[in-house]
Design goal:
The complex is a heterodimer of chains A (104) and B (371).
Chain A (H helix, E strand, L loop, with lengths): L1 E7 L6 H15 L3 E8 L2 E3 L4 H5 L3 E6 L13 E5 L1 H6 L1 H13 L2
Chain B lengths: L1 H41 L14 H14 L1 H14 L4 H14 L2 H22 L9 H39 L3 H16 L5 H15 L4 H23 L10 H15 L7 H4 L3 H21 L3 E2 L12 E2 L1 H22 L25 E2 L1
Antiparallel strand pairs in B: 1-2
Classes of the chains: A alpha/beta (104), B mainly alpha (371).
Chain lengths: 104, 371
Amino acid sequence: MNIVGISACAAGIAHTYIAKEKLVEAAEADGHTIHIETQGTVGTEDELDPADIAKADVAIIAADISVSGKDRFKGIKTIEIPTELVIRSPHKLMKKIEEIVESK
Amino acid sequence: MAEKSKSKKSVWTTLQRYALTGISFLIPIVVAGGFMMAIGSIAGGTSVDTLIGETNLPNILYTCGSLILGMLPCVIGAGIAFGIADKPGIAPGFLVGLISKYIGAGFLGGFVGGFIAGYIALALRDHMKVPSWAEGLKPMLLIPLLSCLAVALIMVYILGYPISIFMTALDSYVRGLDMNQKAMFGAIIGILSGVDYGGPINKVVYAFLLTLQSEGITQPMAVLFLASMNTPFGFTFAYFLQKLFRKNIYTKDDIECLKTAFPMGVCMITEGTFPIIFTALGKAMISTAIGASVGGALSMVWGCGVSVAHGGLFAMPAMTNPFGWLAALLIASAITAVVWILLCKPIDINAIRTTDESEEKDVDLSDFKVA
C-alpha cells in the first residue's frame, strides 16, 4: 500500500513530529510505503512529491489544526484524525486504515 | 440518534480545530513578546511612549515586546478566520481583533469575532452569486469589503457590548474569590493546563487565561506557567529522588532525554519530556495532575501573578511574589516526582524500551472523517 499524509499540531513543535515518526514506524512495520509532510511552526518540511501523491492508495491527515494543501489529495481516500490518536495507537490505526482501504 | 451525537461531536472537533489553528499562529508571537518583555524587565526596562531616539535597550525590548503582545486579539482573530476560510478570512479576522482592542472586548472579542469573520468570509466565498461581469471583482473587492463591513457592524452593534459586560462580570467573579475558592480554582487550572502536556486542553485554557491576563488578572496565568514546568521539573527531580526509594525507573535513553527536557522546561516548554511521558502515559498524567493541582492551589493562595504570557523561569522578574511561585513550583515538582516514582515499574538502566501493539488502546475510526 502507498500512503501519503500530513501531520500538524497546535504548537507545531512536538506532536507534529512524533505523529510522523509513529505513522512511518507503524506503516513500515506492515510493509507499506509512506511519505508524511510536516506542517510545524517552522513551516512545511518534507513536502510531498506529486509523484508519490499520484500513486497513493490513501491519504492520512493527522492534525489538530487546519492544514494547507489538502486539495492535492482530491480523488484519494482521505482519513482525518487528531495527532493524539496516532501517537496513542499507531499500529492499531494502521490496521484500521488497511481495512478501510481494502473495503473500497 | 447515534447519527446525531456523532455529528455533534464532529462540530465540536471542527470548532476546536479552528481555535487551535488560531492559537498555533499565536504561540510564536506570545513566546517572542513574552521573552522580550521578560528580558527587558530583568534589565530594568519599562514601557516608553516614543521609540524613535530611545537609546536604552531594555526599554526598547520591553516596549517592543508589549507592542507585539498587544496585537494578540488581531492574531487570534485573523488566525481563526484563516483556519475557517483560508486567505479571505485574514482581512475581516484582523479587523475584529482591532475592533476588540478598541472597544475593550480584548482577547475574547478577537477569539469569538474570529469565528464570525471566518464563517462570513467562507459564506461569501462559496455562496455569493455575482453576475459574470463581476466575477473578477469578487475576490479583489467584494469579499474583503463585504466581510469587513459585516464583521464591523456585528462587532460594534451586537457583540461588543455583551462581551465587555461578560468580561466585567468574569473580572469581578475571579477577583472576588475567597481563599478556599482560590485554592480550588488554582488546582483546577493546574490540572487542566498540565494533563495533556501542551495539547488542545492546555491551549484552550491558555486562551482563557490570556483573556483574564489582559484584564489584569495575572494569578491564573502563573498557575499555567507552573503546570507547564511541573512535568519536566518533576521528572528530572525523580531521577535524583529515585535513589531514596531504591528504585530505578529510567533507562539510559530516558536520562539522555531528560538532559534536553529540563532546559526546555526551564523555558516553559513541556514537550521535551514526551518520550518519557509516552512510556507510561496514564501514570504520567496522574503524577502531573497531583503535582500541578497542589502547585496551582499554592500559587493562587500565595497571590503569585505574572504579567507576561510566556517565559518560564525568565519571567520571574515580571511576577508578583516570584519566590512564592518558585516555592510552589518546587513543591509541585517534588510531589510529581514522588508520585511518578511510586507508580512506575522499576526498569534496568540498560534496558531498551519497546512498543508493544497489544498495549495500545483500540481505535474507533467511526468518530473521524473518512472521505
